[in-house]
């Protein structure tokens, strides 16, 4: 069961990375969503490797690497900065814009 879940998670991240790459990469400042998603996925994969590792030394090394990638605070700050660049508010009404492009980008942001 765990193996099926891991395949689902890997598939989700591969699909998400593909969508982010095609939507943002080198087209706008939002290409950092792509790199932040990769960095977030590394901690998931390292946690899985720790669980299946049979050597305590390998597990310790993997845990140390996991600690480097786990704190998502850095990614969160950069994402909040880039989210503000989306300008989701209509300048005339000061309400959230109804443009589909803005909603699409907000959806991609939420998925990453």
Strand and helix layout:
Blueprint: H1 2-24, H2 32-52, H3 56-69, H4 73-85, H5 100-111
Helix pairs in contact: 1-2, 2-3, 2-4
Number of strands: 0
Rounded to an integer in angstroms, the radius of gyration calculated over CA atoms is: 17 Å
Q: Largest sheet, described in full?
A: none
Structural class: mainly alpha
Strand % is under 5%
* Helix percentage range: over 70%
Shape: elongated
Query: How many helix segments?
Result: 5
Helix/strand order, N-terminal first = HHHHH
From the N-terminal CA to the C-terminal CA, the straight-line distance is 24 Å
Q: Low-confidence parts lasting 5 or more residues at pLDDT below 50?
A: none
On the 0-100 scale, what is the average pLDDT?
Answer: 76
Explain how this protein is built.
The chain is mainly α and 112 residues long. It has 5 helices and no strands. It has helices at residues 2-24, 32-52, 56-69, 73-85, 100-111.
Main attributes?
single chain; about 110 residues; mainly alpha; 5 helices; about 0% strand; elongated
Summarize the structure.
The protein has 112 residues and is mostly helical. Helices cover 74% and strands 0% of the residues.
